[in-house]
Write a structure and sequence with these properties.
heterodimer; A: about 260 residues; alpha/beta; Rossmann fold; 9-stranded mixed sheet; two-stranded antiparallel ribbon; 13 strands; B: alpha+beta; Butyryl-Coa Dehydrogenase, subunit A, domain 1; Butyryl-CoA Dehydrogenase, subunit A, domain 2; Butyryl-CoA Dehydrogenase, subunit A, domain 3; 4-stranded antiparallel sheet; 10 strands; about 15% strand; globular
């Protein structure tokens, strides 16, 4: 089975987001593989262990994104490719989807493309569906477990009312949630391999596509307004007295 | 001068940090209270490859360097000292001792299964009546028809009840003019007849670890189990300590970090006198000292690790790193409790465990007093490093990671 995992490099989940002059700042937080994507890698590797084949991890971004790809290799992925092109700066999610789709087609004969449910920085959660749309593949979203049955894939989805089992024909795009199981740690063998690997870089020209239009912008980002909160403890000699004082306060503050 | 860690270092560090935080942090209080080692720890550390981290692939290891060993110890002890103790005795004292002193046949027989984590190893130097005074060792090994017959008792041995192998130091020559020269080292399988062992309970700290005693009564050991030459036992033990102490230094650095992190978190949250206590200057002074200790301890151990990578003797630097970091970790834990106030005195928070754990390291692997003697000895020209018959091999990434099956 030929599997691709699409990952993104994001700030660490412990990073503090601050909006400054309408722009997001993550401070000097370390950059890591998007934590949701680690579950996608886990799902891909579990599938590979059951079905055999290769797991290729891909991402879009600058040279530094190779670190996130190396994490994928260290976890056990067989290959990694970086798509890097100045035209991809400020790309929106559908532009990203078009480029990922082109990369998946370039890899050829891909059976499953795995995605994390969303990226912790943009929080859009649409890349998997948009990429599936460009490829013309079905999307099985928010899967909590995955398995293969005779040329098709069966996933479980946790829904409010219970559990749903969904089957789809290959090739297919799958986005996964936490319930898929804890992502494995990188192994020493993986770490050694990752640090010896040369990760090929593809430009949009290598993928045979023009820079896709970006139609969505984020003109302004702001932090939630700060609330002034003051605490006051109401005391009195009896519960009745405390209740009376409290009721008077609530009325005078026009809460009721 | 390059202070940066390699990608390999960072990946190892993150992997071990994730492991310790995810799997050990949630259960450690329970085992510390029970005074038991969590049974999954050794098999899991073996599975992850930690038990052979800084040994070449051809000896069953993972081909990382000595800096990676230090980083792992820092991450493990940032969660609990008992985790780092495993690295100290299995890797630092025993495996690296074999790596430095054992012949090829012995490395095949003992080092490879140890590095793979199939066999757990401990280190038998201290005795009921001999700690800092190594020359007072009572255990004896006498030759008998191509074997040695070993008698004696070892005390305060980490992993005594869990290990398969022990590096045992015994007296082979009671008549040596200098008693240090009468000692020899043996790698002994702990399933040999005549061996009894057990755990010691009621320790102040490292309660989630395993510390015990081992008794040898007429234990027959083939000559091929002797590591190095007869009379080299003291030198072998001291070389092993250069590596064990390194892991203790790196671990204590992690303990300081844990004290700092938890103190900062608490100071930013706890209110007193109408403000966060982190705004109070006397609290800030304690935090500042922890930062100072952490950075200094980290630089000292990384420097020692760098010397090891180059294959240079590092007895003085390792001793300094160990002395400084362990003293500083005890002080950091004590101040962390002070910052937490009464809460810090209860096991609702981690800092009381940090204090109890930090105390032992001021005693084991060279008391702080011994390290002061070592430092003064070098400074005053009273001691130096004579070349050894066998030195700890320098790190060679290509050779250590050479394996046709990958």
């Amino acid at each position: 089975m030929n599997i691709v995992v699409c990952i993104k490099q994001t700030p660490d989940s412990a990073a503090k987001v601050v909006a400054e002059n309408g722009q997001v700042s993550w401070g000097d937080s370390p950059l890591v593989m998007n934590p949701w994507d680690e579950y996608a890698v886990e799902a891909a590797l579990t599938m590979q262990e059951e079905q055999g084949g290769d797991v290729t991890v891909i991402s879009i971004g600058e040279e530094g994104v190779k670190d996130a790809l190396k994490t994928g290799l260290a976890m056990g992925c067989s290959n990694a490719f970086l798509i890097s092109d100045p035209a991809m700066q400020n790309a929106d999610s559908q532009a990203v989807a078009r480029v990922l789709a082109a990369a998946i087609q370039k890899i050829e004969n891909v059976d499953i493309a795995f995605f994390g449910r969303q990226a912790i920085d943009g929080d859009m959660g649409v890349t998997a569906a948009q990429t599936a749309r460009v490829l013309g593949w079905p999307i099985l979203s928010l899967a909590s477990s995955v398995g293969a049955v005779n040329g098709s894939i069966r996933v479980e989805r946790n829904v409010e009312e219970g559990r749903q089992v969904v089957e789809g024909k290959l090739p297919v795009a799958v986005s996964v949630v936490k319930d898929i199981g804890d992502p494995r740690y990188p192994s020493f063998m993986g770490i050694r391999k990752a640090n010896r690997a040369t990760i090929p870089v593809w430009t949009l020209a290598d993928l045979g596509i023009e820079a896709p239009d970006t139609n969505v912008r984020w003109p302004e980002i702001m932090n939630p307004p700060e609330h002034e909160i003051t605490n006051e403890i109401v005391s009195g000699d009896s519960p009745d007295e405390i209740a009376t004082i409290l009721a008077d306060k609530i009325l005078s503050e026009k809460v009721l | 001068m390059d202070f940066s860690l390699t990608d390999e270092h960072r990946m190892v560090q993150e992997m071990v940090r994730d492991y310790a935080q995810r799997e050990i942090a949630p259960i450690i209080k329970e085992y510390d209270r029970k005074q038991e080692m969590a049974p999954e720890i050794l098999p899991r550390m073996a599975e992850l490859g930690l038990l052979g981290i800084c040994l070449p692939l051809r000896y069953g290891g993972q081909g990382m360097d000595y800096i990676a060993l230090g980083l792992v110890c820092e991450e493990l002890e940032a969660v609990d000292s008992s985790m780092r103790v495993v690295m100290s005795v299995h890797v630092g004292l025993n495996c690296l001792g074999l790596f430095q002193w054992a012949d090829e046949e012995q490395k095949e027989a003992f080092l490879i299964p140890q590095a793979r984590g199939e066999k757990i190893a401990c280190f038998g130097l201290s005795e009921p009546g001999a700690g800092s005074d190594v020359a007072a060792i009572q255990s004896t090994a006498r030759r008998d028809k191509g074997n040695y017959v070993i008698n004696g008792e070892k005390m305060w041995i980490s992993l005594a009840s869990k290990a398969h192998h022990v590096m045992w130091v015994a007296r082979t020559n009671p008549d040596a003019p200098d008693p240090h020269d009468g000692l020899s080292a043996f790698l002994v399988e702990l399933d040999r007849p005549g061996i009894t062992r057990g755990d010691i309970h009621g320790k102040l700290g490292v309660r989630a670890g395993s510390t015990g005693w081992i008794s040898f009564q007429d234990v027959r050991v083939p000559e091929k189990n002797r590591i190095g030459k007869e009379g080299e036992g003291f030198k072998i033990a001291m070389s092993a300590l250069d590596n064990g102490r390194y892991t203790v230094a790196a671990g204590a650095t992690g303990l300081i970090r844990a004290c700092l992190d938890e103190s900062v978190q608490y100071a930013n949250q706890r209110q007193a006198f109408g403000r966060q206590i982190g705004k109070i200057q006397l609290i800030q002074a304690k935090i500042a000292h922890m930062v100072q200790s952490y950075d200094a301890a980290r630089l000292l151990y990384l420097h020692a690790g760098w010397l090891k990578n180059l294959g240079k003797r590092n007895t003085r630097q390792t001793s300094l790193a160990k002395w400084f970091a362990t003293d500083a970790s005890f002080e950091a834990a004590s101040q962390a409790i002070q910052i937490h106030g009464a809460y810090g005195y209860s096991d609702e928070y981690n800092v009381e465990r940090y204090l109890r754990n930090a105390r032992g390291a001021i005693i084991y692997e060279g008391t702080s007093e011994i390290h002061q003697l070592i430092q003064a000895g070098y400074a005053l020209g009273l001691r130096g490093d004579a070349p050894l018959r066998k030195e700890l091999p320098a790190y060679d990434r290509d050779k250590w990671q050479e394996n046709c099956s990958e």
